[in-house]
Amino acid sequence: MIDLVVVGAAEAATMAGPAPRLGPALGNAGLVHDAYVAVDGGRILGVGPMTAIPRDWRLAREVYDAAGQTVLPGFVDPHTHVVHAGDRTGEFRERLRGLSYAEIGRRGGGILSTVAATRAATGDRLVAEARPRLRRMLATGTTTAEVKSGYGLTTEDELKMLDAIARLDEPVELVATLLGGHEVPMEARADPEHYVNLVVNEMTPAAARQGIARFCDVFCESGVFDADQSRRMLRAGLEAGLQPRLHADQLTGCGGAELAAAVGARTADHLEQVSEAGIRAMAGAGVMAVLLPGASFFLGIEHAPARRLIDAGVAVALGTDCNPGSCPIESMAVIVGLACVALRLTPEEALCAATLNAAWALNVHDRLGSLEPGKQADLIAIADRDPAAIPYRFGSNLVTAVWKRGQRVV
Amino acid sequence: MIDLVVVGAAEAATMAGPAPRLGPALGNAGLVHDAYVAVDGGRILGVGPMTAIPRDWRLAREVYDAAGQTVLPGFVDPHTHVVHAGDRTGEFRERLRGLSYAEIGRRGGGILSTVAATRAATGDRLVAEARPRLRRMLATGTTTAEVKSGYGLTTEDELKMLDAIARLDEPVELVATLLGGHEVPMEARADPEHYVNLVVNEMTPAAARQGIARFCDVFCESGVFDADQSRRMLRAGLEAGLQPRLHADQLTGCGGAELAAAVGARTADHLEQVSEAGIRAMAGAGVMAVLLPGASFFLGIEHAPARRLIDAGVAVALGTDCNPGSCPIESMAVIVGLACVALRLTPEEALCAATLNAAWALNVHDRLGSLEPGKQADLIAIADRDPAAIPYRFGSNLVTAVWKRGQRVV
């Protein structure tokens, strides 16, 4: 008897097919009406219409009746900062009361306040603070998430963060990214080059030896790291075996997309201010755009030009950017809603960008991101006959069940 | 022994004090640190610091340890259309694919498609379709909600809707509004005056005799009902004992706020396009503004000038506008988040507008909307030490417990 069969789903939005999805193909959710999903040994055995379910798969140790529901792959969140210490709710309040970011920074707030709290925290503390966030992510359908370091900004503290990410792996499966180039730490403000050299010569090789991070990343932004500094840190990552990604063109257009293309980054993230040349360069180099509409929503800035990216042949994924400052959103369902309302993606495009394409962003698309035989059985069921209910019922959690590797976890 | 005591809450955001809150007072959440809430017979006995809890209230049939949590009054949602038949998820999809509202209307979509479905539905069907929506509202902390008719547009079908609202009362307590003037039904398009006369002479008196609706409401909007027609329908309500409210100045400024002031409406809702004269008239007449940022967010239109209204001395409440077309949002927590991010309210202002002031909008503030001795024990606990976490953790459901009349319902 197999482990699990989901039967009678009004729809399965399988996202089946090659990744990443480009152009009009992004809108193909691979729908199967009146569907079953059969699972054994943590893997998907088969997906298809109930009329064609093989006799052997009609019984299972767990039979889930999905009548009136839709089954989808678990969300893959390809960009988070969910591991950190400290609380910036108060800063959110101060900002709404009219305080500027600069003033908040002068009062000890902003990203460096999270750095101070994270440096002061033990690894156990980082693990304990992240757990409820990850639990809420799981409850809203996220089964895999990328998590960045970047609040340590010393080799020791960055490795401590990466170690916490490794310890938090499961039930939400985590993919770690070294973000040594997140910000110039306070003690290096007089000599940022010294910090860049530390990241290049010490931190990046040490993280590679530690063996947890799979990606490296830099915040390329006016006043943070310029394109040349970013390039040196990403190249160091590449040489150490960490695939580059890049925070690009968020607040100012500073050639981030062009740099991502030049260094062969897997993704360029944010892109609110991407140039036309940057879009062309990304399309030419096959760099994926990871769009983070939660951050532009929360900051009240312009959204990324999602349709222009798609039309130019750039593959697009969606992430939460979950972080204590610019976007505390934890739910990929909410991001799918924002992608529809603010970026004008269709529900099917947004769902594909939050599953299959997001899995490609993390280079786990061979195993995750769609409901196909042989793939890992990470799936969710929602209480609606139409997958478009996810963005439509904005802010309501429709998730009725979550399975990770075939095990029911919600 | 008393029924319930909530102990050790990091904060109680009591909202205690007279309603409605105006101007700077809107931002006073009545915080009590390290708080208890004592409840018996469905009513609040006392709220205060743990250091001052009377001995008799330390034990109760239910003791809820709120360590690390915040306790607040349950949300009051003063503007919903949550009772209706039919599904417009597909229309949301078509709109994102580029179809205009006009084209959707020509294809049989829009509000009149909900009217057709609601007319075709039995009362039982209306009740069954609304239940999961109300269940999700309760799960996100809403303990009282207004619900409008307005998808029947015949006397019989409007009374059927109001009857369904009465049958759905509890655990979310419902306050019913007759919205006969929601739209001109298809069969009356050649002679809208005939329909206005029907609302005035037949429907409104019949609804008053039925005894369920407490308010009447009209959609005063260019192309729907003009100010004169709206005035006649609201006056008919007033004469029949239904207090007027008004959908005012949403898509076009057409004197809705001024009309609300002239007829002595309790609230004017929407107000995205309100004029300066309208704001002054509302302040002068004591008409409350019910702001619905979910609708402006979903439609991608300008938001209401919340700060100008507050500064002018207009009392402000927040509602979801939950409806199948322009805003399917069910969660008041999400609306509180939108009010902060999009309307630039502070967390405390938004929370007060979603509880005490919202209770005033429904004329139930003597009984609901704050944690004060003698008031009904409708309260929620959230998993954070700071009430600002509600807007900050946008889209995450932080609610850990909900009590209605002192009974645990979530």
Characterize this entry briefly.
Chain A is α/β, with parallel strands linked by helices and 410 residues long.
Question: Mind explaining what this structure looks like?
Answer:
- Two copies of one chain form a homodimer.
- Chain A is α/β, with parallel strands linked by helices.
- Chain A has 15 helices and 16 strands.
- The first copy, chain A, has helices at residues 89-96, 101-106, 111-120, 123-139, 155-168, 192-210, 227-240, 256-263, 276-285, 293-299, 306-311, 332-341, 347-353, 356-361, 389-392; strands spanning 2-13, 31-40, 43-49, 60-65, 70-73, 75-77, 142-148, 173-181, 213-220, 243-248, 267-270, 288-291, 316-318, 379-382, 399-404, 407-408.
- In chain A, the strands form two sheets. In chain A, strands 1, 2, 3, 4, 5, 14, 15 and 16 form an eight-stranded mixed beta sheet that branches.
- In chain A, helix 5 (155-168) runs parallel beside helix 6, helix 6 runs parallel beside helix 7 (227-240) and helix 8 (256-263) packs parallel to helix 9 (276-285).
- The longest helix of chain A is centred in the middle third of the chain and has 19 residues, at 192-210.
- The mean pLDDT of chain A is 96.
- Chain A binds chain B through residues 87, 89-90, 92-93, 96-97, 132, 136, 139-140, 294, 297-298, 300, 328-331, 333-334, 340-341, 344-348, 383-384, 386, 388-389, 391-397, and chain B through 87, 89-90, 92-93, 96-97, 132, 136, 139-140, 294, 297-298, 300, 328-331, 333-334, 340-341, 344-348, 383-384, 386, 388-389, 391-397.
